[in-house]
Design a protein that fits this description.
Layout lengths: L1 E8 L7 E7 L9 E9 L2 E6 L4 E4 L11 E8 L3 E11 L2 E2 L3 E2 L4 E3 L2
Antiparallel strand pairs: 1-6, 2-3, 2-7, 3-4, 5-6, 7-8, 7-9, 7-10
């Protein structure tokens, strides 16, 4: 099992959440596995999703703030090469997914 850490900078100023996807091919799309959703509720960011997913870093409690830095980690048990992507989300819908520039290789 490997601990995978994914980080991104918030460039949106009206998001309610971020969706994190995992794929075995690039680019990452919404039909790929949704491994985590980071949600703002009551001024607090929280994460839900895959087993042992954790939100380890945020900077503010305001969705209108840009430049925030988010970090999540989760346990990946399946060997393979993975790509990750993040989409901002609000009541109108999801942004385009921004795909990682590199891949992560998990060895069994």
């Amino acid at each position: 099992m490997a601990k995978v850490q994914i980080s991104w900078r918030d460039n949106s100023d009206n998001e309610d959440s971020f969706k994190v996807y995992k794929s075995t091919s690039n680019p990452v799309t919404t039909s790929d596995a949704l491994i985590a959703e980071v949600t703002l509720s009551g001024g607090t960011w929280s994460v839900s999703g895959s087993a042992n997913v954790a939100l380890t870093s945020t900077n503010t409690t305001n969705s209108a703030t840009t430049g925030e830095y988010f970090v999540i980690s989760y346990d990946e048990s399946a060997a393979g090469v993975y790509y990750y992507g993040v989409a901002a989300s609000n009541a109108v819908g999801d942004s385009l997914i921004v795909t990682s520039t590199g891949s992560v290789t998990v060895v069994a």
